[in-house]
Specification:
Length: about 625
Amino acid sequence: MEQNGMSWIKTAGRFLEMLTQYNLKMPHAVYGGENAMDNITAIIKARGAKKVAMFTDKGIEGAGLFALPENAVKAAGAEYYVLDDLPPEPSYMAVQKLVDQFKASGADLIVACGGGSVMDAAKLASVLVTDDYGVKELLDNPGMAQKCVPIVLIPTTAGTGAEVTPNAIVAVPEKELKVGIVNENMIADYVILDARMIKNLPRKIAAATGVDALAHCIECFTSNKANPFSDLYALEGLDLILNNIEKACDDPEAMTEKNRMQIAAYYGGLAITASGTTAVHALSYPLGGKYHIAHGVSNAILLAPVMRFNSEHPAVRERLAIAYDRCCHEAVKVHTVEEKAAWMIARMEAIIEHLEIPTSLTEFNVPKEDLEGLVEAGMQVTRLLNNNMRKVTAEDARAIYKQVLDESMKVIEGMDEADGTQLFKRQGLILQMMLALKQICNHPAQYLKNGETDPVLSGKTEMLLDLVSSIDDAGEKAIIFTQFKEMGDMLVKFITDATGVEPMFLHGGCTIKQRKEMVDRFQNARADKFFILSLKAAGTGLNLTAATHVIHYDLWWNPAVEAQATDRAYRIGQHQNVMVHRFITKSTFEERINDMINSKRQLADMTVSSGESWIGRLSNKELREIFE
């Protein structure tokens, strides 16, 4: 049957909607099996290449994997140039830097050996032997790219499928997002699948990249763009992954299973080329772009929640049932569509749990306060959201992200406080979350470390600068406390820009001589009106009676420590009134913790030596009150 440009095909007794027009573009040649790497020599000679640019990264070189393709290039007698200065999860600027180095090399063939980032950078280089446009321009108009140099891709993981896709993924820091550049001219000319390249892959990386391949296959099979071409590879890839991934990751000698995973990852890439991923990848991009969570881990975190959401759509349930029929080889079978769909999702969850991939955002310091930012960024990835069979609204995205964020509290609440090891881990997780939230309240750039230090991005910073302006106009002086060296550096810049005079900053890295000079200047020089101090560096022995204002930019959640710091301005010789300003971000956990301290006498009576360790001992109920 055909209707509105879609066809309905009968599969396993059920009608499913599919595209009526579809295509699949593939590499010119793919080499696999034993000693597949040796084909590089023949490729170079057949192409008549004189100079080869070899893309890789320092991790691949350090692991000794680069020697295999390097020796094959040497055997061809070609001159070669190594490009290995690429960070993990690179931004488009980092990729452009590598592309510029490639252009300067004058190479006429590219051989790329690495994971998805390395191969994507090489693909972009293959279409950027021009000064007319660069990576940034392709973000807005990917269609302008034209193949300039042939390319050989050699994956060192079994997961990304980048060796066969027309996609290149780069981080865009200003959007806190990863963005895909898609152009069929970036499809590789040659692919080498040599299982020796993944034999000693660390389990953690093998697991994350393997689950990435799993996401590729299941998303493409349940995509609006699913078609006979993509189904062919997605189903075969799913079967291989669901029945081989655990042993391939667990056993370094399981070469049969590793080879199957490598082929499955390639099939997943072909499925992407013919179809496309959906909401799992769309909603995972902000986690990678903003929090630098590895791509495979981001997908693992969202895979089950999104697939469970999608399974409420009848067509997705049908497709999951078909996948079950193909991939489940257990003796005891389930029978209904609903049971089969549930089995598929449970199997994916079991794999992720077995491979010990985090499904909570606790370990990555993602706070609930960032929920709206995640929703906004995720909803921008319309290229992939449009592929999702079940429409994803902003409210849907919010619910999915909230479900994942709630896992953070479930991890903490599920720990046995009677178990000393778990209790210690629980306290660490709580303090880690609190530290991240405190940094975000200070200024987003302190947490993100993205260099975007505009004062308008933080209400706390704007309020500080208003106060600084008033103090400066009145000819008075202030000491400003922060716990963080990086925040102190930012405050130096903010206040310098606002007043034209650079404030002094006393921190733990200052010498005794520098400390004495700063104190003398603040006490005696009229021009030095603002003195920033890290709370620990300013703990004892300072006399700063020139100050008429004490500002606690971020709060140390121990009244005794704050009082000790404030006392720097109340020493013998102080003859002026001193105003104390405590900056608390309204309607956040900062305000709730402050209220908790004020309401509990035992907290108000803490000593300096107590530090903030009490935070880690909060009950589950108290934590819920703070975070919700």
